[in-house]
Specification:
Distance between the termini: 68 Å
Radius of gyration: 20 Å
Oligomer: single chain
CATH architecture of the largest domain: 4-Layer Sandwich
CATH superfamily of the largest domain: Metallo-dependent phosphatases
CATH topology of the largest domain: Purple Acid Phosphatase, chain A, domain 2
Strand order of the largest sheet: 3-2-1-10-11-12
Shape: globular
Number of helices: 10
Strand content: 15-25%
Largest sheet: 6 strands, mixed
Number of strands: 13
Order of helices and strands: EHEHEHEEHHEEEEEEEHEHHHH
Helix content: 25-40%
Length: 284
């Protein structure tokens, strides 16, 4: 007897993607269980997955209020005598989470997750958050990330949408298969150079919708916006959707300013900052 589990994560629906990709029900049609590793979005996403197979989920760090209130941080499952820990894998304390992102090396990232699984006596740790599909043995724990459906933020494009299948046999055999949804490639997984760090692996599955200079300006704008940052994010999100829908390839600062001027809710200092940068670019 073999149990087959479909694994999905980082759907961010409907904020950064509008629906479960059509390929998912086809890939998961024979699974016995679906695990969602967080950043679900609206809970109806789980209702839709539940029409394919029983579904268990945890909440992520970039989550809707309803998902955060209704779903646990982590969930321990025992299937065929094998303990599986399901967790988005973010650090709940945001200050600590942001600090952990400054280190590009994989070592601490992998060992922290393995240690979390060991504390629960789990031999398999299923997680999301990084948007990088991977499977790796670390300190006796099988670390498994299916990859992501939506982008990591509103100035990114997830270039590889992927899910995974985990098979557990009665004899204790474990197999993992990643599937790239756009191509249907089975066994798809980026060739991660662990020594090159996280950003190198992330670049294999995601790309920025803005130039590096504009990225720096946008990051500074979020700091200037302060508590009004959600309004800025909504303006950028409207631009991003045009890219995600294939209507255009990149986002420019001019577009963002146009969206902000349409709403006019932000401090003048923010618009002034954008205008100064655009003027400087146009004058060089």
């Amino acid at each position: 007897m073999t149990v087959q589990i479909g694994i999905i994560s980082d759907t961010h629906i409907p904020r950064r993607w509008d629906k479960i990709p059509d390929a998912v029900p086809k890939v998961f049609k024979d699974v016995d269980l679906i695990l969602h590793a967080g950043d679900v979005g609206k809970l109806w996403v789980l209702d839709e997955l539940g029409k394919i197979a029983p579904t268990i989920a945890v909440h992520g760090n970039d989550e809707t209020d309803e998902a955060r209130l209704s779903l646990p941080y982590q969930q321990l499952l025992i299937i065929g005598g094998i303990r599986i820990l399901l967790c988005h894998s973010h650090i709940p304390d945001r200050v600590q989470e942001l600090a952990s992102r400054k280190d590009d090396a994989w070592t601490d990232k992998l060992k922290r997750r393995a240690k979390q699984a060991q504390a629960a006596g789990a031999g398999i740790y299923i997680f999301g958050h990084t948007h990088v599909p991977m499977v790796k043995q670390e300190d006796g724990v099988l670390l498994l990330n299916p990859g992501a459906i939506a982008s990591g933020n509103s100035i990114l494009r997830q270039t590889v949408q992927s899910v995974a299948l985990l098979s557990l046999s009665a004899a204790g055999d474990i197999s993992v298969e990643h599937i790239a949804l756009s191509t249907g490639d089975r066994g798809h997984i980026p060739n991660i150079d662990w020594a090159s760090g996280f950003r190198s692996a992330f670049a294999n599955v995601s790309e920025y919708l803005v130039s590096q200079d504009d990225k720096a300006t946008i990051e500074a704008a979020y700091n200037v916006a302060g508590d009004d940052w959600p309004v800025l994010d909504e303006a950028i999100l409207r631009c991003a959707w045009r890219c995600w829908r294939g209507q255009q390839h990149r986002i420019t600062l001019d577009e963002i300013v146009g969206e902000l001027e349409r709403d006019q809710p932000l401090p003048a200092v923010l618009l002034d900052m954008f205008h100064r940068v655009i003027f400087r670019e146009n004058s060089t």
